[in-house]
Amino acid sequence: MISCDSYRMTPITEVEGRRVSLSNLDKVLYPATGTTKGEVLHYYAATVGSVILPHLAGRPVSFLRYPDGPGGQLFFTKNPPPGTPAWVETAPVPRSEDQGARQVVVRDLASLMWAANLVVEFHTPQWRTGAPGVADRMVFDLDPGSPATVVECCAVALWLRERLADDGLAAYGKTSGSKGLHLLVPLEPTPSGEVSAYAKRLAMEAEEALPALALHRMKRALRPGKVFVDFSQNSASKTTATPYTLRARPEPTVSAPVTWDEITGCRKAGALVFRAGDMAARLDLHGDLLAPLNDPEQARPLPA
User: Fold this and answer.
1) Torsion-angle region of residue 259: left (phi > 0), alpha (psi -120 to 50) or beta?
2) What's phi and psi for 84, nearest 5 deg?
3) CB under 8 Å to 215, separation ≥6 — which residues?
4) 105 bridge partner residues
């Protein structure tokens, strides 16, 4: 229940025994849909809280902040914001330019709501705080160059799925929440450099197998009509949009898990666009499609 602090005139709610200050609940963050900040907070608290937390747990989070909505100022931050409550967990992270760097770790619903109140996209690395630079998953970010769309991304994803299966690895898909697709693979703990090298090799193989469709280089002159198979997010210094995070797009789109049937059947650009309002029904139908990423029994070794 939200009450009002008579002195600060800031809505306060108690979450798991923590007092969390919430602000500007009636502020429209997504003008295209009229979605307010209060509705965004409800999305994280009531719709996806139980499924996003396992994907955030134990990972240092980076924030893309958009406090005035996607049409306002956007800025990326890794450091704990000023005023971070003492009860919000932080962890040391390796950063060449800052030996004492720390980042927020969202470990419970209270810290999730505190962070969501900042109006953020959640981004996390492929490793956990206890073992920085040792990945427990691999990611391929499939990014279409216009006029290619998510339809072409799905075609590349299907090729990568089969190629990964040849090496004994299972892949799981989610939308980027923008125009592309992410493939994630649970791994036994492996140095990020080795994961990056393997992912690059598969991206090059994809380009060789699908020369009219796939590309492993970022060079923009090569991008039109093709899918860039971005393997670079496996670097220990890189992050990827966390499953279920809202994105700073014109509408409240979600980086949403998808089934392989949906990927296989994708025939139009809008087929895999999911918004905040879609997620409750999808979770009722599918549960967390990416739960295997957090199950150690599903992890497999990277091929030698």
Assistant:
1) beta
2) -60, 125
3) 145, 207, 222, 223, 226, 227, 228, 229
4) 60
Residue 215 host element (H or E): strand 214-215
Q: DSSP readout, 169-209?
A: ---EEEE-SSS-EEEEEEEEEEEHHHHHHHHHHHHHHHHHH
Residue pointed to by tokens 């969202």: 106
What one-letter code names the amino acid at 1?
M
Distances from the Cα of 270 to the Cαs of 32, 149, 180, in angstroms?
Answer: 16, 9, 11
User: For residues 175 and 181, is the Cβ–Cβ distance under 8 A?
Assistant: yes
In contact, 46 and 39? CB cutoff 8 Å: no
Residues sharing a CB contact under 8 Å with residue 5, sequence separation 6 or more, in sequence order: 11, 12, 21
SS (H, E, C) 225-250: CCEEEECHHHCCCCCEECCCCECCCC
Residue 10: strand, helix, or coil: coil
Query: Could you tell me what percentage of the chain is helix, strand and coil, using 3-state DSSP and rounding each to the nearest 5?
Result: 30, 25, 40
Angle at the Cα of 292 (from 103 to 203), degrees rounded to 5?
A: 80
Report d(CA 272, CA 116) in Å as an integer.
Answer: 24
Q: Are 266 and 150 in contact (CB under 8 A)?
A: yes
DSSP H or E stretch at residue 19: strand 18-21
Instruction: Label the pairing between strands 227-230 and 214-215.
Output: parallel
- The values of phi and psi at residue 11, to 5°, are -60, 135
Print pLDDT tens along the chain (304 aa). 333 343 333 588 889 999 999 999 999 999 999 999 999 999 999 999 999 999 999 999 999 999 999 999 999 999 999 999 999 999 999 876 767 799 999 999 999 999 999 999 999 999 999 999 999 999 999 999 999 999 999 999 999 999 999 999 999 999 999 999 999 999 999 999 999 999 999 999 999 999 999 999 877 788 899 999 999 999 999 999 999 999 999 999 999 999 999 999 999 999 999 999 999 999 999 999 999 999 999 999 999 8
